[in-house]
Amino acid sequence: MASLKPVLAQLASGATLSAEEAEAAFDTIMAGEATPAQIAGLLMAMRVRRETVAELTGAVRAMRSRMTSVTAPPGAVDVCGTGGDNAGTLNVSTAVTFVLAGCGVPVAKHGNRALSSQTGGADVLTALGVNVDVALDRLPEVLAAAGCVFLFAPRHHAALRHAAGPRVELGTRTIFNLLGPLANPAKVRRQLTGVHDPAWARPMAETLHALGTERAWLVHGQGLDELTVAGASQVVALQDGAYREFSVSPEDAGLDRSPIEAIRGGDAAMNAGALHALLHGQLGPYRDTVLLNAAAGLIVAGVVQDLRSGAVRAAAAIDGGSAADALVKLRQATT
Fold this sequence. Notes:
There is one protein chain. The protein folds into 2 domains: 5-66, Up-down Bundle (Transferase, Pyrimidine Nucleoside Phosphorylase, Chain A, domain 3), CATH 1.20.970; 77-156 and 169-333, Pyrimidine Nucleoside Phosphorylase, Chain A, domain 2, CATH 3.40.1030. The radius of gyration is 19 Å and the shape is globular. It has helices at residues 5-12, 19-30, 36-49, 53-66, 92-102, 121-127, 139-146, 153-156, 161-170, 176-179, 201-210, 268-279, 285-300, 307-319, 322-333, and strands spanning 77-81, 107-111, 148-152, 190-194, 215-220, 233-239, 242-248. It starts with a helix and ends with a helix. The protein is of the alpha/beta class and 335 residues long. The strands form 2 sheets. It has a 5-stranded mixed β-sheet with strand order 1-4-5-6-7, with helices on both faces. A two-stranded parallel ribbon has the order 2-3.
């Protein structure tokens, strides 16, 4: 049986772990071979001095080696965030999923139930009539039929259960809060990923590059783990191994500004109703927020070159009905 004791001694001395050492340590955790005290000690030692790109990379490799994978077509994208912004907004990335699918971009969306918001992606999809517990072996055919699929994180990363107790008892952010968006079960190579803290955008972009990602935008907007129409948003873009750091505004996409309060959400029924109305043409700040993020997703997918063109394309998918059709197809494909 492997032991975390040598790793803990190394961390206690102030040293960091190589990617290989981190992969071995997290594999020990996910194999159920570490005690709760050892897990908590490792997590807090990393948290206090800040996790490194090598440690993130190794931890994700361990997750990927034990996850239940799904086959997705080339060019598939993921749209998700770290959570942790505690803003309680309407479901943006879930809505963006349908808009991108309506634009012809296959979306393998990684998600969970409510964590930092009142209503997570799994919650709102369930309220919309989508079966998020469809048989795992059917997920590729669901993606083919609907143009999008929801990959419910707990079902694909069952090995994380061994760390659940220590994480709950610690009650604070750990490296695991950063790993979800980096461990998509479909191993997509293109991602629009929101970060709750802009300081993590560059390290997560570097981690994705180390893991083989071709294109990604890591975004943060005015405290949200997504792009916002409330003001400027920060972006770290990865493309073919090169990084760019810049800010974007809603005006770049031809959109009006609105305060974050305008997209506050509620329970699953409320958020599902708002998402349904959005897909059927309702105007307002929620639509504008989704258009901005969908535009970024279209850039990552290689469909458009700029936010303004992306927003026009996304609006056409909504107004032409193809975004709403994607929801209908997903509901039908998962029954």
